[in-house]
Amino acid sequence: MIRSMELGLKGLDKLDGKMVEGFINSLNLFEKIVLRLTGVLFIASFKLEGWESKLPFYLFRCSKHGYQIGYPNGHGARLICFECIHDGIKNLGK
Ligand SMILES: [Zn+2]
User: Fold this and answer.
1) Could you give the CA distance from residue 41 to residue 19 in angstroms, rounded to a whole number?
2) 5-49 pLDDT, tens per residue?
3) What distance lies between CA 69 and its chain's CA centroid?
4) Percentage above 90 pLDDT, the chain
5) Is the N end or the C end of the chain the one with fewer CB atoms within 10 Å?
6) 84 C-alpha to center of ligand 1: Å?
7) Is 20:59 a contact under the CB 8 Å cutoff?
8) 24 Cα–ligand 1 center, Å
9) Separation between Cα atoms, residue 36 and residue 92, nearest integer Å
10) Whether residue 66 has pLDDT greater than 80
11) Residues with Cβ < 8 Å from 69, sequence gap 6 or more?
12) Which backbone phi and psi does 37 adopt, to 5 degrees?
C-alpha cells in the first residue's frame, strides 16, 4: 500500500501525475466514493525531509489540473495545487 510507504516522498517535487494516478488506483471502494462525492480525501500525516513536524496530506481535485496531493496552506488552511503555483510563477515572467 502506497500509504504505508508514506508515498515514498522526499519532497513534493517528486510527486507526479503517475504517482497520483497509482495512489487513486490503490484506494478502496469507500475511499473512491468519498473522493468522488467530496473531491477531497485525507491520506495520512507525513513528515517530509527538513520539516519539523508532520502535516496532514489530502488527495483533492483541482478544477484545472485534476487530482493532486497536497497539504493545507496558510490561515485558511487551503489545499493548494502545486501545478497552479507553477503556472502562476511561469506567468509572472509574461
Ligand atoms: Zn491546479
Assistant:
1) 16
2) 455 555 565 677 788 888 888 899 999 999 999 999 998 887 777
3) 1
4) 26
5) C
6) 4
7) yes
8) 17
9) 33
10) yes
11) 7, 12, 15, 19, 20, 23, 43, 57, 58, 59, 60
12) -80, -40
Q: List the one residue out of 45, 51, 59, 62 whose CA is nearest residue 15.
A: 59
**Is the pLDDT reported for residue 76 higher than 80?**
no
- Average confidence score pLDDT of the chain: 81
**Buried-state track 66-76, b at ≥16 Cβ within 10 A, e below 16:** ebbbbbeeeee
The b/e string for 20-55 (b: 16+ C-beta within 10 A; e otherwise) is beebbeebeeeeeebbeeeeebebeeeebeeeeeee
Tell me, in angstroms, the distance from the centre of ligand 1 to residue 39's CA: 13
Are residues 7 and 22 in contact, defined by beta-carbon separation less than 8 angstroms? no
Q: Ligand 1 centre from 26 Cα, in Å? A: 22
